[in-house]
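I'll show a sample.
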Amino acid sequence: MEILSFVGPAGRPVDAHGSVGVTALALFRGEAVAVTVLRVAAGGEVGRHCAPVDQLLMVTEGRGVVQSGDGDWESVSAGQMVMWRAGEEHTTSAVDDLTAVVVEIAATPPRGG
């Protein structure tokens, strides 16, 4: 067993797609799945981009807003999740400091049993 922590400022700065105030800490990278802790400082933003694979954003702390395509901005906060499908254009902005666990899934597992 190994106990890991994702508390604190660890992670690499992310500026891709014009992102501002974003850091990412990779927890796991596999052939079909990647898990990353994403932090977005209050007022920061993950720049608009197309999801290369299915992406699940699980907000663990803070508040923000998300947008898909040209749709309306939707509020998200700790305890909520957002799923973007591969090819879906999207962006995330933080109202308060926001921490999320992002799971990227190259192949969606079958539903049910």
